[in-house]
Each structure stands twice: as structure tokens, then as C-alpha cells.
Amino acid sequence: MIPPSSHLAANLDDPHNVRRWLQTYHPKQLALLNNFEISLRLGRFSTRGCDGTDSGSSAQQQQQQASSSSKYQYGKERRVITTRTVELLRSIIGSTRWGTAAQLLTLLRGLGNELHAAGGYREPAIGNMVRRIMYAVRDEADRAPVMATSTSTTTTTENAHKMEVLTEQLASTNLRATRALSLSSVLWAHPQHITMKHSRQPSGSVDYSDRMLALTDSSDSTGAGGGSGGGDLSLGADTSASTHYYACYPPHYYNRRDDLRQSVMEAIQEIMSELEDLHKNINEQAVQHIHAGEIILTYALSKTVELFLKAAAAKKRKFQVIVCEGSPHFGGHAMAKSLAGAGIDTTVIHDAATFAIMARVNKVLLPAHAVLANGGLIAPSGCNMVALAAKQNSVPVVTVAGMFKLCPMYPHEGQDTLNDLISPSSVIDYSLLGDPVLSEVEFVNPVHDYIPPQLIDLYVTNIGGFQPSYIYRLLAEYYHSDDWDVFE
Amino acid sequence: MASESDAPPPSSTPNEAAAASASAASSTAKAERKAKPANIVIPPKKPKLNKAERRALQEAQRAAKAGGGGAAAAVGQEGGGKAGGGKAGGEKGGIRTSESGALSTTASGVSGGDATVVKRGHSKSITEEEKKDATPDADDRDTRGNREDKMVSLFSHLPRPKSQSGSHTHHLSSLLASTTQQSSHFHPAIPTLGHLYLTHSLLGGNARCRAMLQTFALLLQSYTPPPTSRDFRHDIDHALLKPAFQYWTTQCRPHSVSMGNAFSFLKLAVANLNRELEWNAAREILLESMEAYVTERIEFAGKAISRHAGTKIQDRGDVLLIFGKSEVINRLLLDAALVDKKQFRVIVVDSRPMLEGRDTLSILSKAGISCTYVLLNALSYLMMREVTKVFLGASALMSNGSVLSRVGTACVALLANSNHIPVLVGCETYKICNRVQLESITGNELGDANEVACTDCARVGPSNRWNGNMSDGGEEKRNDEDALAGWKDQPNLKLLSLMYDLTPSDFVTGIVTEVGILPPTSVAVLLREMSPESASTVDSME
């Protein structure tokens, strides 16, 4: 048997090595990953996943999917993809041989990159899930930090290790208690201010020289302890580039801890159950937000909004829903049908009539593709217009979204943030383009809109309702600021 | 008179016709006297009635009155209004429903009761619509019940769209049938134009107004006042103008403000004729003034707007955003590109239900203007990015400065305003209306709700819309693809299609008229300056 720690230390030092590492040691898990990526690329989750996992109107959904297979509908399978992502990560993390928190984080980052490249950039929830598990890992690792006094913790006996852990736990609780009183701990719930952004740059700066020293020490010692150099060299080809990744993590992350796997798996299980209870938790708040006799306007298709409205209707609230059809994808049609089926008084309008009807609307419910760090919203294209019209008429805009849509990123690219331009086949019939006159015309068909936070009044999430200005604070509870940067 | 209007129309039952002809012998004087109220309900027939016919009607009417119940509708319309529910009433229901493309013709006494609602004077068209709304509701509960429920309560004050459902063909045939039966009274140009209005084959304030005036010119040319007439002005007004206009407005499609203004101009022109004039001379004067109206208020105005707005288009580098289709906007863009040789880009924004932007796109592309075509959903994506100016057309200008235009215009103006991009509205002064309106709900027009369900429309241009709907293949395809194909059978589900929306004046930077570029706050001033006479008369049309 190969001594795991040494190998992993050598190979799992760079996210780019993850695939090779899996290939060498865990071909089974690699196959899982490949399968997932293929499904993601081909968009298979929409057809297979929904009937299995979505408890909603599956028959109707199936029928719609059958009918609209040619139509563009992404975001529809989001919850399925999210759940599958967590399942995949769980099975990979649970059955592979990583030793330390740092290795696990590297593994996760590598997986994140993989998934991002395979289509995750379209589905921010995938990256979010990876980040959340990374945060859970950090949390677990921080809970009982082992002082990096000696890099040879791997060689200490079990008893000594446990002792150390205990003392460190005590120390950390003390530390935490003192920190709770300071201003910084109020602003930063977790020690995120120890960020080392520029440590990822090739040149180690002066400030980190001591840490770099310690790290080179550790790599040296592990390398010496591990021994099997041949594999290291062949697999970790770009060791020079990989060294600075060590700097991402605090020293105690490099200590081996046996209880880490157990607690990380528990954390993942928690995330899973949160995803499962997502709609239940959101829908519990429905009656707080929807009163009798209301006229609610919503845009296009959203499972979350649909279930939210149905939950309110189930509580015997009589209200009226106006659905914008969401041209050119017409998600609103399916939405309206489903809502009407649940006994809600539903009216479908053209998108163009949004402004006209807004004068009589009490509340606007918007679907979410992603929630951004500044409290802005990425929603189906056309929603910005709806939100603006609502603002103009002083109609409150409420967004219903699970926390898994919370993305640690800012909309630096304006309307291009997380956006995608897709085929204009739904905008214009290609047969018309045979006309030489029209062949010069440019057709634009974006998928999403960025809605600035000032146009949104409330986010209803599975952990409660928040105003947009509070979103940045939630980020600190869900992601570590070192993991914010996007996967490549 | 009521019975007059009821009896002649097509669906008259045989016995009613018999009754009418049987009693064809009576005073002419009375006929003359009652001629006026007759037009209240259903327009036409007055002109071509000969004496005998009129007498017959008169007689029938009087008989009805005496009977107190028989032809109660007539009585009802006179104001006496008892729910007699006789033949005439039943008939009325029949006509209504068949003309509005509905299915059943079962009539009952309810329509007689409805008749009591009728008011006189200005509110003619409104009452007409009220009745239309009420009658089918009561009459055809079982056959139409489903559809009636589909009315969005918020908009129940608006007249129902006439071309409901895919029964367009059915409607067409019923229209034709009704016209053949009325042919002795109705110039064929009237239903022809009506059909164009109804099917939306003729769209746009200018085009509709022009067509209306042309049709009136046609009617005038073939019209001679009856020898008995004492005042041809009165005859033209009541026998020619009003019936046709009311037919279009009530049976086909509510008139636009442009049509309303042109019509009141025409009425004014007729009223201003010298009574002593020979008919032929009067006709010449009328035709001339109508032509002048079209040239001055529409054609020249368009030219002037194009010139004014052209100064605001910058050569090289301007990216103009336009919405849908507007004659005056297209014209100014073409002028700027072809006459002034300016180089600019145009973003054509389009939206359902009409998808008129397709036409604009091909017009502008043919002129060599580089275009981008997007649907309304891409608006926020493009608006901030590159647009430098927004040009919008208008169906009407309210005197508080707000702009009534094709649905979606307000959304475009809103986004432009929020991105601080100037919005110029091109509008001829004859489209200024002395009404004020605050939001789009009070005054609007309902479109065909079925168009909402048909997602195919997104890809089919407006020109072949009807073809697609009518062919069997298209029908089946719709059922397969559209999520809302069976919406009428689904309880709780309603579809709403609005034709217009109101852009608040806050969103509008300037209004380009033939007299210059004005802030929207000056519309009321303009209205006063431009047409003091229309200010007083337009209102009577509404």
C-alpha cells in the first residue's frame, strides 16, 4: 500500500493536478466526474433529473420538456444540478485519499475548475456549492487547529496528537471568546481578514517570507518522508508553479487530522439537507409576504416562485397573479398553466404590457439566476425592465431565491455579468435570413439581466428575508473570502 | 329609430320582414322626425332608404309602440324601455353576436332590457359597446360562458376585441354576409376598410386615418343627398359619415385618436359648408379640404418632423434605438440616411403581439442602414451599452404630455430614461388629443387574447400571421407546441393582450412635431394654438 500522505502532498498541491491525481489513484472517482461533466455539457439534467428529484408537477413538467426540447430553457434544472454537484463532491471526497485540509481544499479547487470548465460558468450554483464545501472544510480545520510548530505531526503518536488537538481546541475557544469582543470580530464573523490574495502571485512578497520559509520546510520534510520520488516528478511536473499555492492556507491546514474526513462529510450532509428543505423553508414565509386580494406580477418561469405562490395559495390566500410571458422563451406560459392548475387566478400578458399593468400591481416577484455580492440580482432577461417599472410605480420587488444562488462576485461587467448571448433562433426565424437584406442585420439574444440592488426591496431566502444591502454579510457566513475568486 | 335600425339588418327573421313590408304605408313627416334617433344604435341604411321603405319601417315601429311589447326593443330605445323581448330585441342580439364573431344567435328578452340603457348624444359609441358587452353575456351564457370568464376584470371596461379566437374566417364570412344583405344601404368600401381594421392588416395612426379619409372621399363621390332633404349638411353627417364611422369603431376596431380628430375635422368641414351651395360644389369643397388635411397635417407634417429630428441625428457614431413601427420615425431615418447621407446605426426593438419591428427592419435594411434587431427582453442589455438616442412614434399625445403608443413603448422610454438617454417622440400635431390620461388602464384597447397563447407568432411576421392561423397545419402545430394551447378550457387562466400603453411625460425628453421640438409639458399649449376648434369637438367624439 502506498503511504497516502506523502503522495498526496506531492500531487495534490496544485488544483491543476487534480485530474491527473484522480487518474492515478482514483480512476473510479474520475469516471464519476467525467460522467457528470458529460451530462452537464449535454444538458442531460433537464430531461432526466426533473422527474426524479423535483417533487412538483412532474407529469406536467415532463410533458413540457417533451414539447419544448428544442427550446432554450436553462436554469430550469438548476436545483437538480446543484444537488448532483454536492452528491458528486461527497462521493469524491468521501472515497479519495487526501490527508490534510490543504490537500482537500486543493482537491476541491481543482474539481471546481473542472466543473466550471465543463459548463459551470453557466450555472453559478455549481461553483457556489464547491465554495461552500471548501468553507466547511476550512471551518472544520479551524475548529481544532494544530499549531504548525513542528511539521512532523504525521509522525507523532495518536495520543500526543489527541492531546494537542484538545489543547488547541481550548486555545481556540479562548481565542474566539476574546475575539468576539473586538470590532473586527463583529464585522468578520470568521478570521477572514487573514487573506493572502497576492500570495498566489509567483513571487513571494517580503511579508510572507517567514511563512514561505515554513512552507518550503514542510514540503521538504514531506517529500523526504514520502520517498517515492518518481511518481512525484512525473505527476507534479510544474512544481515550481505549484509551490505558491501553499501560501493560500494557514499553516495548521497542513497538519494531518484523522477526524477531518468525518466532520467534513457531516458538513456536506448538512448542505444536502439544506438543499432538500430549501423550498419548504422558503415557502413557510409565503404567507408573511402575500396577503389576500393582492395582485402579484411575476416574470417567466421559476420553480421557486411557482412553489412560493402555490404555498401561499394552499394557505387559502386568494390573490391574483399576472405572469409576463417571458418572450422569446415563453417560460411564463408554462408557469401560468401550472399556477392556474393550482387554483390561482392567473393572467398572462405580453412582456410589453408590463409597464401598462404595473399601475395595478401590488408586488413583483422575480426569479433569480444568481444573487451577487452587492445585493444585485441576475435574472432572466427582461426582468430589469420589470424591476424598473415596479420602481417607477413604487411597487415592492421581492426576489425568491435559495441561498445556493448567492454568488461571491461583484457585477463589474454590468449587464455582461454571468450573462450569455445565445442563438437568435427564438428571435427571428432563420428562414427569413435567406433574404440578403436581412443577412446583414445583427440579432442579439441575451439570457440574463443584471438588476442593481436599488431596484430590489427584499430577498426571501431559505434562511429568512433580507434587504439587498445585507447580502454582503451573508457571504461571510457562506464562503471564505479566499475562495471568492472564480474558478478558471 | 330603433326599429329602423333593427329591422333592415340581415338576420331579420322572415316574419319580421313580412310585418315590415305589410305595414308599408304611412306618413313621411314622422319618418323625418324620427330619422335622427334611428342612428343611435346601428348606423347605416338611412341614405339608401326610399320613401316606401321608410314608411314601412315607420309603420312597424308605430305598431310596436302601440303593442307595447311586440317590438319592445324599439320602445326601449326610445327611452320607454320595457323588457318586452319581442322579435326586434331578439334580432338585435342575433346581429350583434354574429357580427362580433360570436357563435350563438339565441336571443331573448334581455336585449330589450338592455336597450333602456341607451343614452343619446355623445355617448353613442360607448353605449353601443356597453350593450354589446351586456347582450352576449346574458344571451349566450352557455356557449360563450367560458370565454366571458376569460375577461380580465381589471379591463372589463374596455370593449371586447372583435376578432376573437381563431374564428377569424368565421368572422369574415359573417361580415361579408352582413354586408351583402345590407348592400342596398352600405357602400362596399365601408366593410372592406372595416375588415382591414379588424384584421390589423391596416395598422398605424396615419395609415388608418388616411384610409378613412380616402374611403370617405369615395363615399362622397358616389353620394347624392335624397331629394327630400332640406339640408344636405345634415344628411351627409347622419347618413354618410356617422354610420360608417360608427360601423368601423364599434364593429371593427376602436378608432384611433388620429381617426377621431380627422373625423371631427370632417364633421366641422361639413357643418361649415354654405347651406345654399349646390351639392356638386359642396362636394368639391369637401373633397378638397379632406385632401388638404391629408397633405398638410400628415404628409407635410411628416416632412417637417423629419427635418426637425434630422438635426438631432449625428453623422457617424450615433446609435438610435427605435421601437416597433412608426411611419414618421421610419421616414425621418430614411431621410437622414438617404437624403442627408448620414451614417448611423439603428437598433430596432420589437415585441409581441404585433411584431411590427420586422417591417421596420426590412425597410431600413433595404435603405442600407445597419440595423440590430432585438426583442424587448434584450433592451436593458443594449440600452446602456451603446444607444445614444431613442426615437419613438406615437398614436396620440394626451394634453398632459403623456404619449399613447403601441404597447411596449413605455418600457423602452422607461429604460432610456433610467439610463439617461434622450427620448424623442415624433408625432404630428393632428394626433394631439385633448383628453388627459394618467395610466394605461383607463383608456386602452384589447387585442386578441389568443395571440398571447400562440408562441409561433414570435417567429412569424405580422403579414403571414393570419395565414398561419387559418391553415390546418398551423392549428395543429400550435396545439402541440404551445403550453397554453388549451387555455380556454382551463379554469383560473386568463390571457390579456393590450394594444397600447401610456408613456408618462417624465420619460420624454422632447416631442418632435411639425412646428418644432417641444418639451412634453407644452403639448397643451400646442393643442390650443394649433386647433382651437378641435379642442372643442374632439371630445364629443369620445
TrEMBL record, chain A:
InterPro entries: eIF2B_beta_subunit, IF-2B-related, IF_2B-like_C, NagB/RpiA_transferase-like
UniProt biased composition (Low complexity): 55-73
Family matches, as Pfam families: IF-2B
GO molecular function, one term: translation initiation factor activity
A GO cellular-component term linked to this record: cytosol
Broad class of the protein's primary localization: cytoplasm
SUPFAM superfamilies: NagB/RpiA/CoA transferase-like
Region Disordered, residue ranges: 49-74
Entry keyword set: Coiled coil, Cytoplasm, Initiation factor, Protein biosynthesis
Subcellular location: Cytoplasm, Cytosol
Matches recorded under Gene3D superfamilies: Translation initiation factor eif-2b, domain 2
Family label: Belongs to the eIF-2B alpha/beta/delta subunits family.
Quaternary data: Component of the translation initiation factor 2B (eIF2B) complex which is a heterodecamer of two sets of five different subunits: alpha, beta, gamma, delta and epsilon. Subunits alpha, beta and delta comprise a regulatory subcomplex and subunits epsilon and gamma comprise a catalytic subcomplex. Within the complex, the hexameric regulatory complex resides at the center, with the two heterodimeric catalytic subcomplexes bound on opposite sides.
PANTHER family listed in its UniProt record: TRANSLATION INITIATION FACTOR EIF-2B SUBUNIT BETA
Name this protein carries in UniProt: Translation initiation factor eIF2B subunit beta
Source organism of this protein record: Discostella pseudostelligera
UniProtKB/TrEMBL annotation, chain B:
Keyword Disulfide bond among UniProt keywords: no
Keyword Protein biosynthesis: yes
Entry-linked Pfam families: IF-2B
Subcellular localization: Cytoplasm, Cytosol
Region (Disordered): 1-146
Main location: cytoplasm
Low complexity biased stretches: 13-29
Taxonomic superkingdom: Eukaryota
Compositional bias annotation for Gly residues: 66-88
Listed Basic and acidic residues bias regions: 125-135
GO molecular-function terms, A-Z: translation initiation factor activity
Keyword entries, A-Z: Cytoplasm, Initiation factor, Protein biosynthesis
Database matches in Gene3D superfamilies: Translation initiation factor eif-2b, domain 2
One cellular component term from this protein's GO annotations in UniProt: cytosol
InterPro entries, per the entry: IF-2B-related, IF_2B-like_C, NagB/RpiA_transferase-like
Biased composition (Polar residues): 97-109
Quaternary structure and partners: Component of the translation initiation factor 2B (eIF2B) complex which is a heterodecamer of two sets of five different subunits: alpha, beta, gamma, delta and epsilon. Subunits alpha, beta and delta comprise a regulatory subcomplex and subunits epsilon and gamma comprise a catalytic subcomplex. Within the complex, the hexameric regulatory complex resides at the center, with the two heterodimeric catalytic subcomplexes bound on opposite sides.
Protein family membership: Belongs to the eIF-2B alpha/beta/delta subunits family.
Entry protein name: Translation initiation factor eIF2B subunit delta
Native species: Discostella pseudostelligera
